Amino acid sequence: MERPNALRWLGYAVGVRLPDRYNDWALYDATSKHWRARYVLQRSIGILPLCAVWLLLPGSIWLRLSLVLMAALVAYFYSCAYMEESVEHRLGRQGFPHNTGRRLRAEAAEAKNAEATARYLARYRTPSEG
Q1: How far apart are CA 27 and CA 1, in angstroms?
Q2: Average pLDDT in the 83-96 region?
Q3: Nearest 5 degrees, angle CA 95-CA 99-CA 102?
Q4: How do residues 9-24 score in pLDDT, each as one tens digit?
Q5: What is the mean pLDDT of residues 76-86?
Q6: What does the pLDDT read at residue 115?
Q7: C-alpha to C-alpha distances, 3 to 29, 69, 84, 96, nearest whole angstrom
Q8: Of 48, 85, 100, 106, which residue is 20 to 30 A from 32 by alpha carbon distance?
Q9: Is a pLDDT exceeding 70 seen at residue 128?
Q10: If you write DSSP's letter for every residue of 109-129 in order, what string do you get?
Q11: Cβ neighbours around 114 below 10 Å, total
Q12: How far apart are CA 34 and CA 42, in angstroms?
């Protein structure tokens, strides 16, 4: 799996389509164990420059910090509210069929739940209880 360099990753974080050779990495990015944290980090790339500009506005530091805090909270709220749809759209832009990410994450969760159920049954159920 080829990982994009820093410049390509920055473009990807703000919505630029990666070349096809990075498709495996894009799929991993959208379906890995920490896909939500990766998504929030990518959204931060778009939010931080705006926050920096707002800090340069005239006014008291408390007013500017309050503006930055409120704007960042709203931006993160809406980004996270549409997280799955945004990730699916990004995968679609990379050429994957609709709902690929959801399907792969659901399959991984199902496998993880099956393992946990098997461990539970092995530990807390006697063979006669079945």
Answers
A1: 10
A2: 94
A3: 120
A4: 999 998 899 999 999 9
A5: 95
A6: 87
A7: 10, 33, 22, 18
A8: 48
A9: no
A10: HHHHHHHHHHHHHHHH--TTT
A11: 10
A12: 13
pTM: 0.79
What 8-state DSSP symbol labels residue 60? Answer: -
The Cα–Cα gap between 97 and 127 comes to: 44
Residue 80 corresponds to which tokens in the numbers above? Answer: 């996270």
78-108 as b/e, with b when 16 or more CB fall inside 10 Å?
A: ebeeeebebbbebbeebebeeebbbebbeee
CB 91 within 8 A of CB 26: yes
Cβ contact 91:100 at 8 Å = yes
Our CA angle for 86, 91, 95, nearest 5°, is 140
**CA 87 to CA 89: how far, in whole Å?**
5
Cα(40)–Cα(79) distance, rounded to whole angstroms?
Answer: 8
d(CA 130, CA 123): 12
Q: Minimal CA–CA distance to 30: which of 80, 102, 97? A: 102
Report, as an integer, the average pLDDT of 40-63.
92
